[in-house]
Specification:
By secondary structure, this protein is of the alpha/beta class. Helices cover 44% and strands 15% of the residues. It has two domains: 205 residues, Rossmann fold (3-Layer(aba) Sandwich); 91 residues, Alpha-Beta Complex (UDP-galactose 4-epimerase, domain 1), CATH 3.90.25. The protein contains twelve helices and 13 strands. The structure holds ligand G4F.
Length: 337
């Protein structure tokens, strides 16, 4: 019999890659989605449109325990991947309250509902390298102390501790992934990598003339999301639940990302990038670089993408997307005339 997995956040970048991966492994894949998403599938399901006939979607909200309980009491799952969150760090400074509410209570509701209805379901929590914040050592590993620098980071530390507590208090199989930044062509436009790749395409195709960014010196350990979802799955296949850092071990600055992305279309980034303090954060995470030795040794996990391949893929995907959109617009105009 095939295994059943429940994914919260299935409409997001990671959820869509994970759903693809689990389907390929023969899983029956279920997803929690907000009712508003079900009512607006064209816009909200763009990342999972190609999977829609193969997956099962359930309406529920991370803000409502009864809606989650309703799903977990009617359908049994072997594994639950809790990926849904307010995940944009800058937004968490604008509205820390709703970030905390969704990320902390939402995680608690899922854990509590599983404990009540199916305590043997294995649980994955999407922890983040943002938890390390003002890093106390480099590279960061599973033993590095947390020092979060944003409401988002704080909410992830709380989710991490809740997950560990359910494991220790109720003997549930609860795992924490500590994932460093992971990107790809399905990344939201608000995150810096996609903002860069999509604006590079817009500049190259003459739609805009500049790219306004905040702190160019920030350094991140950027990997590809499709690599990172393989690690999530592997974490739930081990004999004992544990905590794992998932990272490439390399760090690059926002400036490095710009340089490579503009290079890819034959442009010099210095002519187009402008620093705008509007994008600075009240407290910045200056440097992240992960040590994924434990994931490599215990899970046999290795990233397949290099940093350069990631940047290339994102820029080319955005060039293609924009070219197609422009052609569609031109055809539409032609038909009107
Ligand atoms: O792309 P970012 O917004 O990602 P950030 O803050 O590192 O968080 C991402 O990775 C975390 C894992 O460590 C996840 F948990 C989290 O959910 C999210 O996926 O910003 C990256 C860096 C920051 O230092 C930011 O200050 O880029 C800098 N930056 C400079 N200019 C900018 C911009 N970030 C954004 N979003 N927009 C800018 O214009």
């Amino acid at each position: 019999m095939s295994k059943k997995a429940l994914i919260t956040g299935i409409t997001g970048q990671d959820g869509s890659y994970l759903a693809e991966h689990l389907l390929a492994l023969g899983y029956e894949v279920h997803g929690l989605v907000r009712r508003v998403a079900l009512e607006d599938p064209e816009r909200r399901f763009n990342r999972i449109a190609h999977l829609i006939e193969s997956i099962h979607l359930h309406p529920a909200s991370l803000e409502s325990y009864p809606s989650i309980f309703h799903v977990t009491s009617r359908c049994e799952f072997d594994e639950c991947y809790h990926l849904a969150a307010q995940s944009f760090v800058a937004e968490s400074f604008s509205d820390g309250f709703s970030t905390m509410n969704t990320n902390i209570n939402g995680t608690h509701y899922i854990l509590a509902a599983l404990r009540e209805t199916q305590p043997r379901c294995r649980f994955y929590f999407a922890g983040s390298s943002e938890m390390f914040g003002k890093v106390e050592e480099s590279p960061q590993n599973e033993r590095t102390r947390f020092h979060p620098r944003s409401p988002y980071g704080i909410s992830k530390v709380a989710g991490f501790e809740l997950t560990r507590n359910y494991r220790e208090a109720y003997s549930m199989y609860c795992v924490n992934g500590i994932l460093f930044n992971h990107e790809g062509p399905r990344r939201g436009f608000e995150f810096v990598t996609r903002k860069i790749s999509s604006t590079v395409a817009r500049i190259k195709l003459g739609v805009t003339s500049e790219l306004r960014l905040g702190n160019l010196d920030a350094r991140r350990d950027w990997g590809h999301a499709s690599d990172y979802v393989r690690a999530m799955h592997l974490m739930l296949q081990q004999d004992e639940p544990d905590e794992y850092v998932v990272a490439t071990g390399e760090t690059h600055s926002v400036r490095d990302f710009c340089e490579l992305a503009f290079d890819e279309v034959g442009l010099d980034w210095k002519e187009y990038v402008r620093v705008d303090e509007k994008y600075y954060r009240p407290a910045e995470v200056d440097l992240l670089m992960g040590d994924a030795r434990k994931a490599r040794e215990r899970l046999g996990w290795h990233p397949r993408y290099t940093f350069t391949e990631l940047v290339k893929e994102m820029v080319h995907a955005d060039m293609e997307l924009l070219t197609k959109a422009t052609e569609r617009k031109d055809r539409g105009r032609g038909q009107e005339q």
